Structure formats: structure tokens, C-alpha cells
Amino acid sequence: MSKRKNKMISVFVMGVFATAFALPLLSALGVPTFDVGLVALFGEGSILALVLSLLLILSIVLGVGKVIKSYT
């Protein structure tokens, strides 16, 4: 395997492990989920909650893309 492919696989595996361990830990500590926070901030059925969610997803995708480009 190429060096680049090994790095990409290791980044993917680290992401899976981080998610698998962090989410149950946060749930056990009583941290509310994202949808509970959005309803508390904006109310039920608000379009602003959707806009905020899309902005957060876009920023995460762009950030991960930058990290992958700099890592490989």
C-alpha cells in the first residue's frame, strides 16, 4: 500500500474510535444531544436551527478537508 493510503486509513480508524468512545461517554455524563440544544435555543420547527446545522456541517466538512490536505 502507498504511504498516502495508509495515512488515510489511519485517519479514518482514529475517527471511528474517537466517535465510538466519546459519544457514549458524553451521554453517560448527561450532556444533552444536539437536537435538544437546538430546540432549547430556537424552539420547535425553527428555520434558524436548520441554518445553524447546515453552517456547522459545512464548517466541519471544510475543516476536515483542510486537515486531510495538510496531513497527506
Element layout with pairings:
Layout: H1 3-28, H2 34-42, H3 47-71
Explain this structure.
The longest helix is centred in the N-terminal third of the chain and has 26 residues, at 3-28. The protein is built from 3 helices and no strands. It is mainly alpha-helical. The two termini are 14 Å apart. The model has no long low-confidence stretch (mean pLDDT 88). It is flat, with a radius of gyration of 16 Å. The chain has 2 domains: 1-31; 32-72, no CATH class.
How would you sum up this structure in a few lines?
This protein is mainly α and 72 residues long. The protein has helices at 3-28, 34-42, 47-71.
Mean pLDDT across residues: 88
Assembly of the depicted chains: single chain
Strand content range: under 5%
Counted beta strands: 0
Distance between the termini: 14 Å
Helix residue percentage? over 70%
Q: What is the CA-based Rg, rounded?
A: 16 Å
- How many helical elements? 3
Tell me the overall shape. flat
What structural class is derived from the secondary structure elements?
A: mainly alpha
The largest pleated sheet is described as: none
Helix and strand run: HHH
Low-confidence stretches: none
Question: How many structural domains are formed by the residues?
Answer: 2
Notable characteristics:
2 domains; about 0% strand; flat
